[in-house]
Fold:
Amino acid sequence: MADRQAIVQAIRNADLRGEELRERIVAGSETPLVDGEWRVRDALSHLAARANPLPLLYAITAMSEGDAQMAEFDVEVQNAQQIEERSGNAVSEILDEMHAAYEEAIGEIELLDDEILNKSLQLPGMENEIQVSDLLLMSMGMHVDAHLSDIEAALGTVGN
Structure:
């Protein structure tokens, strides 16, 4: 089980890395990622939408405990909505949104009940249950790192 401090540190690391890339992201926001169909700004929009993982966590928890079918959750539809919702925003505004959501997430996670962190969830496509604390660490660590690495690879020397 991941501890609260590890989750908070993963968020701080993600925030710092995003800020370190800020100038390059602004300069190269329309650059296509090396793989897939997204541009830098699309990946950034996705990260901003998920910078505070708790609203999604609460929705997933409600779906797993209620009548709603988690299998109906379509990540591609969600991703497209995240990008569309930010399509009129300047990239600097998306970066600011991401930073603010990271700060909000840290405050909420520091106050999160241990019972919630210790709870196990069964997610679609996963054979075994996962503890909420591990899911949060994975989301704020590996998931964010992967997208930021994609952004960094796409930008190469843009803005340097």
